[in-house]
Each structure stands twice: as C-alpha cells, then as structure tokens.
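On clarity, I found the account of how folds are encoded harder to follow than it need be. Since the whole study asks how a given chain folds, the encoding of that fold should be made plain. For illustration, here is how one protein appears when written out as sequence plus structure tokens:
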Amino acid sequence: MTQQRRFTKEFEEEAVRLDQRANAARDRRTNENTNGLLRQYFPKGTDLSMHSAEEIGAVAAALNARPRKTLDWKTPAEALDQWLP
C-alpha cells in the first residue's frame, strides 16, 4: 500500500471515529426522547406483534408530523422541503 493510500485510509478512519464521538451524546438524547414519545402510544414492554401494521404506521405518521425544536419547530417534512427543488 502506498503511503498516500495508507494516510488517506487512516485519516478517514479517524474522522469517522471523531464524528461518532461528537454525535454520541446528541444521538442518545434524541433516542431517549423518541422512546418517551413512543411510550405515549405503546407502554414499555408492549408486544408490538399485537398491533397491526396500520396502527404502527399511524403512530409513525403522528410522530413524524410533530414539529421539532432541533428543526426550528418545523416538521421533518418541512425541513426536508427546503432542501429539495
């Protein structure tokens, strides 16, 4: 392996590790918040196989329609629309 390839590979691997560490705390908060929202519909320990795909889809649609502080109080669809032509 050439020095340039080895450097590039090592640099990219380190960049990924740093990015993962930087996002870990934020991701954990987002995950815990989402779990709390899901528990409004499905209490902890609920057997999701007892619910139809339509019921679960309705919950997903309701959660995806909620505005998010991290998106400047826009829904995910509204935030995505500003990036699409």
Remarks:
- The chain has two domains: 1-42, 47-85.
- Residues 1-42 form one domain.
- The CA atoms of residues 30 and 70 lie 10 Å apart.
